[in-house]
Design brief:
The chain has 20 helices and three strands. By secondary structure, the protein is mostly helical.
Length: about 425
């Protein structure tokens, strides 16, 4: 186990938040509780406030784990022309070292290239997935997932890329008094190991089972999702499309096929969870982009629309049941997804169906009118590939006959909105 606690960017952010959460404590008391100096707490709080005031936090609390922009620029100026690559300031120093050492021009005899993680069982794979998504896995989580021997084994194989550290005082609470945590020090390296393993389609089944194991253990301790209640189950981070795609980044159709298998495998546990249904809908939208045939594309858009509609209905029921305003954010996000699906269907049918075009325009207008959605986001959103949102609007502006009269006010609303962006 590492003898020293690592003061990284995340620790400093946590320390500033701890200070904000406990205004009754003096700076000295905060410093004593965290085991750092009074001057450090003052400095971190000032840096945080200055960065927020300037609306720029890319270099906030950079610390020793990452290169600064100036350092990256200086080093890359020297690396250019060597043929061994350049560094990425968004990655940790360890990740950059591993990236450079993977180049054939550099000796492959270093110990990092000899690290072999264990992928023999679904629990071992589940352990790596948990580490990849959580970044820090506390003792309490190790017990909840029943992976003590697996995570210790992976740490032993991968040290120092995966390490075991003591928790800080401020990380300990009445609900979690974990004395230790497993920490990933090279997250992109870990993503790469999972990606390489997933490239073999024969491994897909055990990966799906690993996700099922993770979700089943969470439900075992936290209970099944209640269709009419706002739930905070910790499995949500394990079903986010962005998170799954981040750790299984096989580019192209193979990655999306694997992710769709993962969602379909989890259906037995989460079929009535609207968050799960919404994420699966986005997966189907993205998977349709990799298909060439019309029938398959339509099938996937229909599946995604079904999931998004059901998710919307459940969120709506929840809101009427408990009145939690956070559910309105979820409703707005799902409505935006519904609108994008309809835009895709209109495009693939060459805007020949007036009813579909009208429904799409009305839904899009309603979704983008919400303060929780924006066209600026839609332009960059991965499910809005080919910018089908803009294309539908352009078609309706050029030829009003493709929509019914009831949608013409919505076209005007969208014109004002898009003009501002």
């Amino acid at each position: 186990m590492s003898e020293n606690k690592v003061i990284d960017k995340q620790f400093k952010l946590d320390a500033v938040q701890y200070r904000k959460d406990h205004p009754e404590l003096t700076f000295q008391q905060v410093a004593d509780n965290l085991g750092v100096s009074n001057s450090s707490i003052h400095r971190w709080c000032k840096q945080f406030d200055d960065a927020k005031n300037e609306n720029e936090d890319s270099n906030l609390f950079r610390g020793s784990g990452n290169f600064s922009s100036d350092e990256a620029k200086n080093i890359n100026s020297k690396l250019t022309g060597t043929g061994i690559g350049i560094i990425n300031k968004s990655k940790t120093i360890l990740d950059n070292i591993l990236d450079l050492s993977s180049n054939n021009r550099i000796s492959t005899s270093n110990k990092f290239n000899k690290i072999q993680l264990s992928f023999d069982t679904e629990k071992q794979i589940a352990t790596l997935i948990i580490l990849a998504i959580e970044k820090k896995v506390y003792s309490s989580q190790v017990l909840k997932f029943n992976i003590l021997s697996e995570i210790y084994n992976q740490k032993s194989r991968a040290y120092p890329l995966i390490d075991l550290e003591e928790t800080w005082n401020f990380e300990i609470s009445a609900s979690d008094n974990s004395p230790q945590k497993y920490v990933v020090n090279a997250e992109y390296w870990l993503y790469k190991q999972l990606e390489l393993f997933s490239e073999n389609a024969e491994h897909h089944k055990i990966i799906v089972n690993a996700f099922k194991y993770i979700v089943s253990k969470i439900i075992e301790t936290e209970g099944k999702p209640d269709i009419l209640k706002y739930n905070k189950q910790s499995y949500k981070k394990f079903i986010l499309f962005d998170n799954i795609n981040m750790i299984f980044r096989i580019y192209g159709r193979d990655s999306l096929v694997l992710i769709s298998k993962i969602y379909e495998g989890l259906n037995c546990y989460l079929s009535n969870d609207p968050n799960y249904l919404h994420q699966r809908a986005k997966c189907y939208i993205k998977l349709a982009s990799s298909e060439s045939g019309y029938d398959k594309k339509i099938e996937l858009f229909e599946k995604s629309h079904r999931d998004a509609n059901l998710a919307y209905q459940i969120f709506e029921q929840r809101y009427h049941e408990c009145g939690n305003n956070k559910i309105l954010i979820s409703l707005a996000h799902v409505e935006y997804t519904q609108a994008v699906i309809l835009c895709h269907k209109c495009k693939i049918n060459d805007y020949q169906n007036v009813d579909d075009n009208t429904t799409a325009i009305l839904t899009l207008d309603s979704a983008l009118a919400s303060p929780h959605n924006s066209y600026d986001y839609a332009k960059k959103d991965y499910i809005n590939y080919d910018n089908v949102v803009q294309k539908l609007f352009d078609k309706a502006m050029l030829d009003s006959s493709i929509i019914k009269d009831e949608a013409k006010n919505s076209v005007e609303n969208l014109f004002k909105l898009l003009k501002e962006n």
